[in-house]
Amino acid sequence: MLALYLLGCCWLLTVTAQLGLPGMPVVPDRYNSYGFPWNRTYLPTEPQQIHLSITAQGESAKIQFATHQPIQTAFLKYWSKDSSILLNTSHTQSLTPDTGYRYQVGSVANSLTLWSAEFEFHTPSSQDDFKFLAIGDLGVNNAVTMEQLVKRASHYDFFALTGDQAYDLSDFDGTKGDQYMNFVQPLFASLPYLGVVGNHETAFNYSHYKNRFNIVPYQESNSIDPLFYSISYKSLHLISFSSEFYFDPNAQTKYPLDWLEADLDLANRRRHLQPWIVFMTHRPLYCSGNSSSCHMPSVLSSLEPILLKHKVDIYMSGHVHNYERTYPMYNSSLQTKSYENAPTFFQLVIGNAGQPEGPSDFLPGDPPPWSANRFSGYGFTEFKVSLSELELTHLSVNTDGSLGKIVDHVVVSKTK
Ligand SMILES: [Fe+2]
């Protein structure tokens, strides 16, 4: 929005735009000013941007942090919440199940040791079920859900993020990415990250994304690339698969699809242990948003046959900035309105965590027959997963940042 004013002798040009968009600076707003001083000045060797991820079944954790200047040694100090014994190691060793841990990271440079604040996370409980959080499309500005996510982090075992962060991680030589990683630290340092790359992370051959998130368990899932990995966690097999190579004319398509087929083959051999397969990527296959992003034939024709063949349960994406759940469907056609022993996967769009581009609306008129529920406000999704059931709840967050209401709830079940 541009406005031109004549003030006495001079014209004054006022530029009002949605700050925090790609190429625009980040500014304080009501959603990123809730208490954590993420935009302060850090000492040159002080740990910042702390975040963690996990390996299969939560057997170990990987923690990463940044400093402005080189350090001689990076420390990781972690201990059980019930123990006073300190372990000093650069990576966690095997962790004890059903245990809460505290940790700190530290840096040593020129005889100066700087420790971070303490953070907490927990390993898988001894119970069959667990909860995880799922969000998509999160910026530093207009991050409407962030305060609620931080408040609820202890409810979950990890969080999935369906791509597009910071808008953009690479802006201003990566300093917007630094601001973002400090802004999200209260969530990312206490809840393991299992996310996927989006189109706002493709710059410089994905280097800002790959370097900041190289702690995802890709090597543990027989992948050579953090853009493609999977993890088995209790009764869930979660796949993180970049959709962005479909839009890069120079990208190799053979490796991602070969890796996906091999991973799904293995997952199906273990289906008695992990009956639920959730496929996470950035771009949707089907949606009824008012967006050209709901029609991407190259992605659909490539992925849909593979996911059907391997009996994937859920296709979860972001990119479109709203929430939508489909019924089980394929080939653009509704298959059933039942989620019990469904013959095909259904799809979720969860790109409504809050980012500077704002929400996306839906096409006017009635929803298509395969669209089960849709919501154009802000929110987040939680999954409760057990061997026989997967319960999905989408909660809204109001524009004042307060928790809204349950806008969607469905139980998916398998009896055979
Ligand atoms: Fe996107």
Automatic annotation (TrEMBL):
Q: Residue limits of the Calcineurin-like phosphoesterase domain?
A: 130-323
Question: Which InterPro entries does the record cross-reference, listed alphabetically?
Answer: Calcineurin-like_PHP (IPR004843), Metallo-depent_PP-like (IPR029052), MPP_PAP (IPR041792), PAPs_C (IPR025733), Purple_acid_Pase-like_N (IPR008963)
Residue ranges of domain Purple acid phosphatase C-terminal in the record = 347-398
Q: Which residues form the signal peptide?
A: 1-17
Keyword DNA damage assigned: no
Which family does the similarity line name? Belongs to the metallophosphoesterase superfamily. Purple acid phosphatase family.
Top-rank taxon of the source lineage equals Eukaryota
- Which keywords has UniProt assigned to this entry? Glycoprotein, Hydrolase, Signal
Query: Pfam families, from UniProt?
Result: Metallophos, Metallophos_C
What Enzyme Commission number(s) does the record list for this chain?
Answer: 3.1.3.2
Kindly report, in one word, the top-level EC class recorded for this enzyme. hydrolase
Q: What is this protein called?
A: Purple acid phosphatase
Q: Identify a single GO molecular function assigned to this protein.
A: metal ion binding
Q: Which reaction does it catalyse?
A: a phosphate monoester + H2O = an alcohol + phosphate
Looking at the keywords, is Glycoprotein present? yes
